[in-house]
């Protein structure tokens, strides 16, 4: 997945990434947003709907 994202960033000079998900997809979108920040140094916009809580207090502090 990250190779595909890197290709799009390079090809289209991506400046902003938006991620969305519902339910389990929302939880995955949250996790993917951290991966995007770590690998591509782009802070994505993230929209989730009805996502379960993930992580613990330390995860929430790190994420914020």
Task: Provide structural commentary.
The longest helix has 17 residues, at 24-40. This protein is globular. The two termini are 24 Å apart. It has a two-stranded parallel sheet with strand order 1-2. The chain is an alpha+beta fold. It contains three helices and two strands. The protein has helices at 2-12, 24-40, 57-63; strands spanning 18-22, 45-49. The protein has one domain (2-63).
The low-confidence runs, each spanning 5 or more residues with pLDDT under 50, are none
Discrete helix count: 3
The first-to-last residue Cα distance is: 24 Å
Number of domains: 1
The total beta strand count reads: 2
Give me the strand/helix succession. HEHEH
Q: Helical content, roughly? A: 40-55%
The 3D shape can be described as: globular
Task: Supply Rg.
Answer: 12 Å
| Percent in strands | 15-25%
Widest sheet, order of strands: 1-2
Give a short account of the largest sheet.
2 strands, parallel
> What's the assembly state of these chains?
single chain
Specify the structural class: alpha+beta
Indicate the mean pLDDT.
Answer: 91
């Amino acid at each position: 997945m990250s190779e595909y994202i890197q290709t799009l960033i390079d090809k289209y000079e991506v400046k902003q990434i938006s991620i969305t998900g519902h339910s389990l997809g929302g939880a995955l979108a949250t996790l993917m947003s951290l991966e995007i920040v770590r690998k591509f140094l782009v802070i994505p916009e993230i929209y989730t709907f009805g996502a379960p809580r993930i992580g613990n207090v330390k995860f929430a502090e790190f994420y914020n």
